[in-house]
Input
Amino acid sequence: MADAASAASRHSLPLARSPIATVSPERVCDGWVVSGCVSTAALTITDLTPLTKVLVRAPVDGEVAAMLGVGHGRAVPARLPTAGSDGDDAGGLDVLVVGSGPGEWTVLTQPGRAGDVIARLDGVCAASPGTVTLVDLTHGRALVRLAGDRAVDVLAKECAVDLSPLRCPDGTALRTVVSGVVADVVRRDREPGHDPLAGPEFVVHVERSSGQYLFDCLCDAGAEFGIEVQGFDGLWGSAGMTAAPPPTVG
Amino acid sequence: MMLLPCPWCGPRDATEFNFLGESRNRPDPGSVTIEQWRDHLYLRANHAGEVTETWYHRAGCRRHLVVVRDLLSNGVRSARSSYGSSVEASEEPQ
Amino acid sequence: MTRRPWRAVRSTTPRGDPGWRLPPQPGEVIDRSRSFTFSWNGRPCSAYEGDTIASALAASGVRVFSRSFKYHRPRGLLTASFHDPGCMVQVGDEPNVRGAHRRAEPGMRVSAQDAWPSLALDVKAANALVRRAIPAGFYYKTVIRPQRLWPAYERVLERFAHGGVVPDSPEYDVSDRFDQRHAHPDVLVAGGGPAGIAAALSASRAGARVMLVEEEADLGGHLRWGGAEQLARLVELRRQVADSDVEVLLDACVLGRYDDNLVSVVHRGLPGIDERLVKARVGTLVVAAGLIERPYVFAGNDVPGVMLSTAVRRLVNVYAVRPGARAVVLTANDEGDAAADDLRRVGVEVVHVEDARSGGDIVRVHGRSRVRGVDLADRRTVACDLVVTATGWTAPVSLLTMAGDRPGYDDAAARFVPGRTSDVVPTGGLVGDGTLDELLAHGAAVGEAAAAGPDHDEREATGAALRPRPHPALFRGRTHGIVDFSEDVSSHDLVAAVDEGYRDVELVKRYTTATMGPAQGKLELVNTVAIVAEATGRSIAQTGTTTWRPPYAPVTLGALAGRPREPRRLSPMHGWHVAHGATPLVAGAWIRPDHYGDPGGEASAVRSSVGIIDVTPIGKLDLHGPDVARLLNLVYVNRWSKLPVGRVRYGVMCAEDGVVLDDGVTGRLGEDHYLMTTTSSGAATVWEWIEGWLQTEHPDWRVHVTPVTTAYASINLAGPRSRDLLSRLVQDIDLAAEAFPYLHVRTGTVAGVEDCVVWRIGFTGELSFEVHVPAGYGLHVWEQLVEQGQDLGVRAFGVEAQRILRLEKGHLIVGQDTDGLTTAEEAALGGLVRVDKQDAVGLPELVVASRQSPRSRLVALVTDDPDLVPAEGGQIVGADGRICGRITSSRLSPTLERSVCLGQLDSALARPGHRVTLRLVDGSTAGAKVAERLAQIDPDGVRLRG
Output
């Protein structure tokens, strides 16, 4: 905490904070104060709130829907085309496109890229008929990841929807009630074979002010399975990106 | 607890929805008399049988749904988005 | 409280007896290599692992486990099972533990309930002597008048009511003791007897996800007390279950079946928690609840030592306990015969077997705290210490009736049998009697059909039918005895109720409380129905049953509550508020700072220099699209079509009935882009309200609504120095009055944070700016404001100071100064309403309201006594004493150094200067007059426009 705060005052660059209290040690990642702790537990919970989250609203079956390549209820990795000048993203920006509602998508990617995502989507959307809305919800949602074979059992204590692999395979997206608050749930596993941590992973996000509450509830529910807090490691986990490049959007 | 077959999200607990009552056509506010308006506001058929209702999937797709439900058996015959969407779910009454 | 002397119970052990624990039995579940002690009423009692509390006590010679509910008669083991009504005990801090079901554990502290002052010397047993004082329906007859004595009645009744003791100490923390989880089996089988096991196995083999729920600690049902062949078959069945994918919940009880096959199960015996409620959404519910043996009604049928045949078979075969020394057996079926055989086999002297199939009967039992003898039908009296009855079965059809089934009464079999429902199906003893192979075949067929899903209608084609065998109809003998052992209702009480005119069994139930105790009808319902039928001269079928409702068995409130889950919402600055001594205010799910110790001082700081308040909870909706103005025109009562970019307008929403719903400001950020604010409590309502209009009435309008309430931390800077303060943090917005006037909105960078929205709005009546900061930076901006405003005397203020300030300014709060009937006119907002619209929410009501004077009107009131702060909600009365209004808000104003109030007043009286009378809480009255304007400070709005 002291490190992060002094960093802020030295450079007078504001640091963003998650609504979920960080577990020490703290570090700064892309302008966000995050937890740097490392866990090797079989079941972990990670505060991924710093991720960029852009909401897209467009007609259910229009061109934007076709461009995003996924409908309500599914989540797929995708690569947004490069706007041009960015050197880092020669191949484009890797995102997770979540079909979070009818005519509603949530685009998730690494922190600090809301402007890029909106600029890139704007370009594609401008040409399409119908009203398209892009809203940066990075600061409006608290987002956590549950990872481990028992993640399903943790959520079964907090959520009435059947999230077993049979009904909720990899790539499922849904909105329901978790711990008594409305939550978006996305099952997004790491690629098996490329990541030793591969296993069921759920991303759960709620409106920001309930973030700490949700985190506490999931930790409480996971206690019997030995849940531990994992530090911030980005959308795709510490092992990096998915092995195969995802399809390019557009 | 009742399940509602949401055309977008599949069957969900009724507590995920807001119940907005029998579906009724809103009279034209420009031509309606105040008596007709108040009938519209306060009078319900409360039919003992199948009734067309509006439900809002607050904790899911956030769509207003037209639900045909049998008030005697709680069986839901069909549920669809409130405006002409092709998406529809149905379930035989119990 | 003194405890029952230990020796009183030991005295029931016949002198010279070799002991009550039998030598090893083939089916016993106790582990004789592991023994331990627990305490019973403070005295040690030894047990083996696998013993229930009751079996260990019975093996130690204990015969009296509790006192009955009403007459406080001594009670012993009746069923020796989960449902035994006679041995509810207190275990440590846990009341109402089923002693014949709960496994004994080392060091457990067990004590008797319902005994006062002690089990042996129970003064309440005097009730039995004054039976007339507690007649049928005594609740309704005896304790009615005078009403002022009710508290005294309650204290006495509490003493006599069921139940143990829930500790009232701070150490008693239930939060970790209860848990819940959801499950989604395709098939849930309720009952782990042979038919249930077969159903679960075959459903699992057919590919279904199966949950098998058994209330006892082991699978097997009646096989557990069977002979060698049955035990061998049980071993094989258990092996098949262990090898399958069936999820087995032992020590778990299905409580209820609700709409769409939501099935609740309470699961015990888990590590670390007492109870877990499983909420299972089930495809097909298979009910394999078996049969419950029915007690027989005769005089003395509740004396300790009178037992059901299944109780004897459990005690002997499962727990290796000798139930008595000299037994008389009344049998009408094979199970009774087998119980007699069991007793003989283990060396109990069976002095007489009375065969009810050939007219045998028991007339009365002698003894009070133990059986001493029994009168038989042929007038002989036989000395004994154990009376066993086997007089028939009750089919526990409750889960079926919860699914809408109406069981029918089978005269020949003298029991109820299930009808038919689609997604809840019975198997096993519930359906009929059969050999083990027949039960297994039926279960397997039902399980396979269940796996095919509730719509599968081939279920009848199982070819494995079970039918109830004929059985003599035995309910009550020739004397009166106890029918409901839980509630202490006798057959005499039931007949008396019928004599008093209660002929309907549902009415008799409510009048006598029969079937309303912990046994919930499973032991006593059919006897109740039979006795009412007899008393009314009708058949059992004509009499019908009472309705079985959830729960199947009593459940703790802790299990239903689960883990504490109370959603709470926190602003990004919450930690700062806590660190600076804020008193929390719970507002819906939000936890807000009410004040930081001195609300009056906080309010004064705003009036004199500058204050900052965290207003993050105010609702914010991002509105985007070409038709936003049409939407605003529809949902607000005022006009919105010509709001320029960069401007802000206050708006009021009414519902279709013209009642004020919410208010707030909306600013236009871009050509098609608006930001709407709502009240904190109305945020969700307004969002859904707007979605409703867009989706149902105007799906053609191109508007997207996105809730962004918590995407922004909202901070209001209020006070004459607020511009000075904000200017220190803002470079790219010209804050000068001319460049950024009141009711305007700008976007820019605040304290280095981009994409902030800055509004010239305020609730306090002072010059004020509201800053909406991307929420992750909320704490940063807040801390910068505090730091940069030190020399200006900046002070954080809470909700209470804001309430004072807005009241001084005469700003209303929807829901505080309005209620569920208040129209815009009555809220003094009529000036905003525009009825020359094509459409607006509630337009016909707005038109009517604009043409007639409102019933009441919001006014500011000035009390004659400046120090008087009348209570909110207090009445305003006219000269004739008639109520003509109410105080809606009142506070002491630190600025005016007097009270300020708003109130709703009959419109005829709502004239400036009119005098009214306030009726105060203590009954006294005080004078007040109607003020000129709602605002008591800066009524012309000079300050806020500064």
Chain A has a mean pLDDT of 86.
